[in-house]
Amino acid sequence: MHDPRIGDSTGELVDRRGLSDADVEQVVEVMNALRNWHEAAERMSESSRRYMRLNETDMRALRYLIAAHHQKRLVTPGALTDYLGISTASTTKLLDRLEKGGHVRRGPHPSDRRALTVAVTDATRKDARESVGRQHARRFTVAAELTPADRAVVIGFLDALTATEVAEDGEDGATGDR
């Protein structure tokens, strides 16, 4: 329902009082632009997953491992389990799959003989940098070209939009647990 004049012609859901036709039209354009951005981001994400032959959880794991690499942090399977919010059995299957695909390697922990570490391979880190990394760099450039005042408006708008989320239990997304 991007255009309340069509999807909510009676004004039951969307209060348009005080808005001119031009204002409503511009709000609809904002909502359409957001939809277009969301669809573009989804296409990029799907393209990256297809290129790397991975699912969303696999990609989240790799992003986490790449960030840890850049921060020079060791990652254990337990830390990955906690980050992803999945079971240890699922983490083991995920790591088996990623290791078989040449995306990660497991090794001994340098200070705890009972523990393992998990690291992203150089080849996967390079692939991610050349695909997803370049996309993010272009997006950063677009945001950097805004004035500080315009960035503040965009941040405020997106934060307010995020706060409209209602969790399934009816709690406000801004205060509910995620």
TrEMBL record:
Pfam families with a match to the protein in the record: MarR_2 (PF12802)
Sections of the chain in a coiled coil: none
HTH marR-type domain: residues covered: 27-163
Domain of life: Bacteria
Entry-linked Gene3D superfamilies: Winged helix-like DNA-binding domain superfamily/Winged helix DNA-binding domain
Protein name: MarR family transcriptional regulator
Taxonomic source organism: Occultella glacieicola
Biological classification of the source: Bacteria, Bacillati, Actinomycetota, Actinomycetes, Micrococcales
